[in-house]
């Protein structure tokens, strides 16, 4: 909240333009140290209607968005408060994982949740917009409001525009989001399966080698007993 209080306005750019030179600046390094949990994530975004539960990382580089959702640098940190507007973004159309692919199915009145440092913030969708990539007019702060926008590319497979799903904070945060399983990218699951498979194969080879050597020793001992 202190970080947000020292910001006068929202300054950001399209997260999918491939530019991340700003990561080298002192301002970004300071930002990267705020809400830095031991496990390396800022929080979790949950969208029960479409079965989404993703980790939120700092920034929106391609490396970050391959693993989950990212907080759009230049917007308020997602900790709530009046006159605040945070943006959470994730990919649509990744071949190995479903991130924000189904964001198109959200309607006004639906809820989504942010789990930040042990606190669950609940937001109600009131605005759904499709804009050009560099149009950030709807990502600005709005007087007296606590807003979060979910951002992704659209249309599916074309990605020429941006889908913005904006919600306002609903108090009190009495309703907890369902505790669905965290969505891990498919490649991570396949990697773990492959790793386990390799371990099994290696163990089988070691056991077979031990048996083979033991068989040779037994045979050698048998020959010695015959010669004796």
From TrEMBL:
Please provide the record's keywords in A-Z order. Hydrolase, Membrane, Transmembrane, Transmembrane helix
What InterPro entries does its record include?
Sortase, Sortase_C, Sortase_dom-sf
Gene3D superfamilies, alphabetically? Sortase
GO MF annotation, one:
hydrolase activity
> Where exactly are the transmembrane stretches of this chain?
184-208
The catalytic residues are: 91, 153
Q: Which NCBIfam families match?
A: class_C_sortase, sortase_fam
Could you identify this protein by its name? Sortase family protein
The record lists the lineage as: Bacteria, Bacillati, Actinomycetota, Actinomycetes, Bifidobacteriales
């Amino acid at each position: 909240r202190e970080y947000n209080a020292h910001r006068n306005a929202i300054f950001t750019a399209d997260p999918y333009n491939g530019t991340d030179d700003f990561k080298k600046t002192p301002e970004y390094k300071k930002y990267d140290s705020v809400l830095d949990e031991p496990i390396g994530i800022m929080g979790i975004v949950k969208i029960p209607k479409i079965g989404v539960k993703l980790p939120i990382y700092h920034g929106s580089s391609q490396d970050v968005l391959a693993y989950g959702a990212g907080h759009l640098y230049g917007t308020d940190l997602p900790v709530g408060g009046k006159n605040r507007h945070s943006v959470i973004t994730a990919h649509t159309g990744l071949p190995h994982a479903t991130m924000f692919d189904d964001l198109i199915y959200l309607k006004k009145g639906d809820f989504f949740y942010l789990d930040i440092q042990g606190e669950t913030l609940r937001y109600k969708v009131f605005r759904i917009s499709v804009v050009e990539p560099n149009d950030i007019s709807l990502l600005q702060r709005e007087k007296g409001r606590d807003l979060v926008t979910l951002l992704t590319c659209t249309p599916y497979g074309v990605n020429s525009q941006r889908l913005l799903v904006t919600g306002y904070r609903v108090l009190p945060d009495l309703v907890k989001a369902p505790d669905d399983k965290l969505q891990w990218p498919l490649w991570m699951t396949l990697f773990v399966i492959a790793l386990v498979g390799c371990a099994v194969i290696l163990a089988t080879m070691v056991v077979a080698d031990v048996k083979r050597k033991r068989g040779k020793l037994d045979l050698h001992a048998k020959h010695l007993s015959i010669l004796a």
